[in-house]
What does this fold into?
Amino acid sequence: MATGGTAARRSLSSTMDTSQEIDSPPQWFTMFFADFEQRLEMRLEGAVTKRLDELTVELKAQFDKINTLEFEQANLKSELKTVREENKSLAQKIDDLENRSRRNNLVFYGIPEKVGLGQENCIDTLSSILRDFVGLNEDDMKTIDRCHRTPSHKTVGDNTKPRIIHVAFSSFMAKQKVRKECIDKFKTNDYNGRKIYVSDDFSRRILQLRKSKMETFKRLQRENKKPFFVYPDVIKYRLDGKVVNAE
It folds into this structure.
């Protein structure tokens, strides 16, 4: 029995030793994982640091591109501003030249169109009014160089409003004489029961500028201040014997 008990104890001890050997990890495993956490942390830190360095370089490159684009945009804005100023200056010069070329011209509004066979002779129509209605002489008629209605063709069915008449005179003095005589006559007299008006011939730009100020002009008229335009679009009137600006 003793022998049997001893054998049993030896068998149990052998089994326990074997179990302990199985439960213990191998030496290589223990050595590999001894500093695994530290090595993993170092590797991750290295990878993150490398990627951050790459992103920093890329970000700097993007900032450089943005700075370059902003610089180019600023240059383009400056160039665009210069071009616009030059275009504005050129437009004003061209407009000034156009208005200078119109110095000898007058524009008549409200002169009835002659209805009948054939095309109207515009010079004859205007001359008869200037001579018979306004009271100008034949020498004044000879100062008319050109005369035409605008638009050149009357709109079909439009029989109510006569087209305006553009007149070019041989000199500025001749034009000014006709203008003064017509204004004096048209101001207080109707032609066959209708109003006729005369004005200087200006470019479209000047007409638009003056049109934008017509509310002020009409208000001054209602106040009996007798306003008038000074080239290009300045409204003035007389106050206590002095000429003052309306704006």
Notes: The chain is about 60% helix and 15% strand. The beta strands are 105-109, 144-150, 164-169, 197-200, 228-230, 234-239, 242-245.
